[in-house]
Amino acid sequence: MENLKVIDLFCGAGGASTGLIRAGYDVVGAVDAYQEALDTYRKNLCEGDLTNEFPGSVTFDKPLRADLSQGYDDSGKGENLPEITFEDIRENFELEEGEVDVICGCPPCQNFSSLRDTEPWPDGKPKDGLLRAFVDFIREEVPDVVLFENVSNILNAGEEVPSTYVDWFIRQMKNITRPSDSPQEGGYGYTFKVVNAADYGVPQRRRRTIGIFIYGAEDEEVTIPAPTHARDPEEDSDREPWVEVQDRIFREDLKTDLDLGQKQTGIDGYPDDPAHRSRRHHDSTIEMIEAIREHGGSWKDLRGTNDKDLIKECHQDLSSGARSAYGIMAKDEPAPTLTTRCANVSSGRFTHPTENRAITFREAALLMGFPRDYKLPSVNEHAERVVGNAVPPLLIKKAAEHARSDLQQVKKKEITEAA
C-alpha cells in the first residue's frame, strides 16, 4: 500500500504530524488557529530536515491558519480568522476531492478536561462545537480512515459510557455514506479506548482517548494497538518496561545544572539549544523546594515539620487538592501529565528530579516525545503551551500504523467479496 495521504486538523505544533510521518504517512495539509504553534510546525516540518529521517513526508510549504469552527456558536472562535470548509482546505493545498485518505484531528474539548468542572448538557447535543465542525469536515470528504485523539474524560463524562458526547459522535459517523454507496455499504466501523501513553513507550503518564474509524468496516474489524510497555512487565511478556524520565532528559548534550534563568547557549561542551532554558524562581520558592526534597516529594510533606512555615500562604489551609504543586518529578518513572504550564513549579509536579528548578522547555518536549532538535518558541508561555497541548508523536505513530493494518484487512475482504 502506498503512503496514505492525511490532513491534520487542529494540528498544533505538529505532534500528530510527526507521528504520522514516522508511521509512513504523507501529510498533505495541516490547519490550526494558533499562530505560534503554526510557526513551530512550519520551522520543523515544512522547512527543517526532520522529515528526511522518516518514511513519510510533509508536502506543503506552510500550514494553514484558519477558524475551524464552521460557525458553531459554542466553539469559541477567538480571533477574527476566516471560517473554512473542507473544500477551502483542498483548494489551499491543491488537492482533488477524494484524494485524502485519512483525516486526523484532535479538536480541543476543554469542557471535558479533568482540570475543569463538567456541567450537564442536553441529550444528543455535543458540548463542544469543534467536534461538530470536525464531523462536518469528515462528511465533506469521507476518507477511508479517521484518527481521533482527545482528553480521557470525553469517553465517560456524564452518567453513561460512552458519554452522550461520544455517543453522538459515533452515531454521526455511522450515518456518513459516500454518494456511490448504499447505507449498508457506508458508515464507519469504530473503536474507542482510553489509553495511557506510557504503555506505548512515551515517557509520560498521559491518559488520552483514542478513536479509530474505518469506512465500510464492521466495528470488530477496527482495533486499538496492543500496549508495548508496562510498569512491571511479566517475565514471559513481550512488553518492555515503561520509559523513565531519566532515560530522556539525562543526556550528555543537555546541561543538567543550569543556573536559574540560564539557557544552553555559548556553554563550552554543549551544543547551543535556546529551548533548554531555566525559569527564574523566587528565593522563597527555592527554599521550599529544598525542604520538600528533604521531607518527601510534595509541599504537603512539609506539614508537621520544622519547615511548615515554608508552605505557600494559598496552601496553608487547603485540606485537599493541589498536591502536585511544587512536586518533585521522579526520575525513575514516566513523567506526570504535562500541561500548558509544564515548566512552572507551582502548576504541578514539574520540579526537576535532581535540580532545584522547573524542567526546561526542551526537557518537557523530550518527555512529550518530540525529536531532540525540535525547535520551540522563544517566549516561555508559548513554548509551554505548544508542548503541553501536543499529541505524543509516538502514540499517534502506533495508532496510525495499526489503523493502516486494519484498513488493509478491510480492503482485502472487500476484494474477496466482490470476486
Gist of the model:
The protein is of the alpha/beta class and 419 residues long. The chain contains 10 helices and 12 strands.
Task: Describe the protein's topology.
Elements lengths: L4 E5 L5 H8 L3 E7 L2 H12 L10 E2 L5 E2 L20 H7 L9 E4 L23 H13 L3 E7 L12 H11 L13 E9 L10 E9 L13 E2 L9 E2 L3 H5 L13 E2 L8 E5 L5 H13 L65 H8 L11 H9 L4 H26 L1
Parallel strand pairs: 1-2, 1-5, 2-3, 2-4, 5-6, 9-10
Antiparallel strand pairs: 6-8, 7-8, 11-12
Helix pairs in contact: 1-10, 8-9
Q: Can you describe this structure?
A:
This protein is α/β, with parallel strands linked by helices. The protein folds into 2 domains: 5-232 and 393-418, Rossmann fold, CATH 3.40.50; 245-388, DNA Methylase, Chain A, domain 2, CATH 3.90.120. The protein has 10 helices and 12 strands. Strands 1, 2, 3, 4, 5, 6, 7 and 8 form an 8-stranded mixed beta sheet that branches. Strands 9-10 form a two-stranded parallel sheet. The radius of gyration is 22 Å and the shape is globular. The two termini are 20 Å apart.
Which structural class do the helices and strands define? Answer: alpha/beta
What Rg, in angstroms, do the CA atoms define?
22 Å
Pattern of helices and strands: EHEHEEHEHEHEEEEHEEHHHH
Number of helices: 10
Largest sheet: 8 strands, mixed
Low-confidence stretches: 113-119
Count of distinct strands: 12
Q: How much strand content do the residues show?
A: 5-15%
Distance between the termini: 20 Å
Q: What is the overall shape?
A: globular
Task: Tell me the CATH superfamily of the largest domain.
Answer: Vaccinia Virus protein VP39
- Give the total of domains: 2
* Name of the CATH architecture of the largest domain: 3-Layer(aba) Sandwich
Share of residues in helices: 25-40%
Can you identify the CATH class of the largest domain? Answer: Alpha Beta
- Mean pLDDT, to the nearest integer, reads 90
Per CATH, what is the topology of the largest domain?
Rossmann fold
